[in-house]
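Colleagues,

For the teaching module next term, I've prepared a clean inverse folding example: a structure given as tokens, and then the sequence designed for it. I'd like students to try predicting residues themselves before seeing the answer, so please don't circulate the second half yet.
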């Protein structure tokens, strides 16, 4: 007796095809969402901001000092109290170029308000909207620095400090969190693990090993 002819199960084939298409689609969505989550977002534009490094730069001296700061970091506050005025004076006198990098590593210590990221983003807002007020705003952020494990300053409070510095035009940018993604991307790009991080002429200093003297020499 002849063997029966097998029938093609077109229903099963089409179901398999649909499943594959759905899985591919889901994979594409995941990739897109991941890319959006890690995208740097819009970049601030200002004569003060270095497009390549993201630094907010003051002065035009040959020697360069880069500082990476988190506005909730108490050690950054101590660093600014000890060296901030000298660095800013040296920049104003043309002895150095001071490159300030607002970064974010302490969001976990602000009761889920992402204060570190919001404050760093607000610094870029001010540098873009009111460059002449940027340094005053930077100093006000440290003069009004919140304690770790607090909620930090609200967007309204950040905008009020910007207004005090002469950068009221930055209020909408601050409220919108325009440069929060940019801050995260910059923090990752520069591989910042702790703050303050200091570099002199491109060399990252080991502050625990006393290399801060390399910066101090530039300040006289």
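(Answer key — instructors only)
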């Amino acid at each position: 007796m002849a063997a029966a002819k097998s029938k093609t199960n077109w229903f099963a084939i089409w179901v398999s095809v649909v499943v594959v298409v759905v899985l591919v689609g889901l994979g594409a969505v995941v990739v897109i969402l991941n890319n959006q989550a890690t995208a740097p977002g819009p970049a601030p534009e200002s004569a003060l901001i270095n497009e390549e490094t993201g630094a907010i730069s003051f002065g035009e001296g040959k020697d360069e000092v880069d500082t990476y700061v988190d506005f909730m970091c108490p050690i950054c506050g101590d660093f600014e109290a000890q060296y901030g005025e000298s660095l800013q004076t040296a920049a104003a006198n043309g002895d150095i170029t001071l490159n300030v990098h607002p970064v974010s590593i302490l969001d976990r210590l602000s009761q889920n308000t992402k204060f570190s990221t919001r404050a760093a983003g607000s610094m870029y807002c001010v540098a873009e909207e009111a460059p002449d007020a940027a340094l005053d705003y930077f100093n006000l952020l440290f003069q009004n620095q919140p304690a770790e494990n607090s909620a930090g300053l609200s967007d309204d409070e950040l905008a009020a400090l910007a207004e005090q510095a002469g950068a009221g035009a930055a209020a909408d940018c601050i409220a919108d969190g325009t440069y929060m993604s940019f801050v995260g991307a910059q923090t990752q790009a520069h591989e910042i693990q702790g703050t303050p991080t200091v570099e002199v002429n491109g060399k990252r200093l080991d502050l625990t090993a006393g290399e801060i003297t390399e910066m101090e020499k530039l300040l006289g």
